[in-house]
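Q: My labmate handed me this sequence with no annotations at all. I'd like to see what the chain might look like in three dimensions before we decide whether it's worth expressing. Could you predict it?
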Amino acid sequence: MDRYKRLASNTLILALGQFSSRFLVIIMMRFYTEMLSTDGYGTVGLIIDTCVIIMGIVTLSINDSLIRFGLDKKYDKAQVFSIGLITVIIGLAIFAVFTPILNTVETFRGYTVWIYFYVVSGSLKSCCSLFARSAGYVRLFAVDGLFTTVMNITFNLIFMLGLGLGVKGYLLSVIIADALSIVFVFYMAGLKKYLQIFGLSRHLRTSMYRFCIPLIPTNIMWWIILVSAGFFITHFSGIDDTGLYKAAYRFPNIIVILSLIFMQAWNMSAITEKNSATIARFYTNVFNIMQSVIYIMAAGLMLIIRPALAIFSSAEFHEVYRFSSVLIMAVVFNCFSSFAGSVYVASKKSVRSMTTAIIGAAVNIILNLILIPPWGVYGAGFATLASYLVIFAVRAVDTRKIVFMDFKLPKMLVNSLILAGMGAIVMTVPSQSYFLYYVSLSCLFLMAVVINFRSAMGAVSMILKKRG
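A: Here is what I predict for the chain of 468 residues:
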């Protein structure tokens, strides 16, 4: 049971730190929608989404290697961190030369400097915090998430509410919060002792690059799936609809956030347990628990999405709950795809991860072009759902060649049908039919709980055993 206790321990630590920070962001959603309106909200979303993919390109996705090689005991941690940090610094210097190109994009004009420093602070923060996690500072990593969020919100209030800086105020808040996070983690984790300029292993550098460089196109493909809809919606329907789409994604993203917290802990287990003779059963058991928890969360979110958006967003965003229902189903398969992708991380099969992501991105682009013009935001949601579903299907088949785990497909099918039924109710039942709306959703939610309760309790059992 040591492996389950370790997984539970890391998940619990990360959850306590990071979920509280994410919850603060959710609470702030009404503030952001009031301060930015639909067009400003859409602009911020596009800028942040673009910065994320730029960070992956200019740093060669080296952060993925920091985790993979930093957790592996056969590699020297000082060399791993130094190679990663030097790679990030060189990439940021090169990016400075090409930053003016961003002015050719109308949405980014006037924000070029802010975008550059957003990329700088975000890249360095990720480098320091992710290495700290791989070096064993899991609690510090969790605390840093909360610290960064509190700083970000504090500066939001100063720059957006106090000074009325709007989009620029939002970006400046993130930049300063990330800068403070870098100082905090660097000092608390004592990262200075891991700095090494000379005598770096060429073999290790080559191995780290061989692992992370294929992840650049992989991350670009994920970016296409995640954010290309925003650009297509802006082109076909306008920036206001993009703001609605981003708002619709906010609550379904709760599931992704919680899944990512778990995946951070799970990847640590998957890497360190990669040579175990019983690894297939370990993967199967953990996925079964994860699947049950995610379906219960998704069904619960379907049940409350309408009143939640009414509480946490301004009036012009209230009706986006209908769009959110499709995106809730999409993020479920996003989570499953990420779990299957952990097999590629543990086995260093990053090229296969890239191939599956390319397939999903191709599906997403084609369906965006077909569905967004007639259906708008709905079309974007269905395109996203289809792309994540395709990626999971391909990975479910492919990863079994590496780790022969059981994805519990019959159970997944029943759960998906329940979720699809709830989504249909959210999208089609008239807003004035409150009784029919909530009674039908409640019945389906209870069905999901009954089906998944026993497996979901496995997560509680792991945590209780860890505490005991």
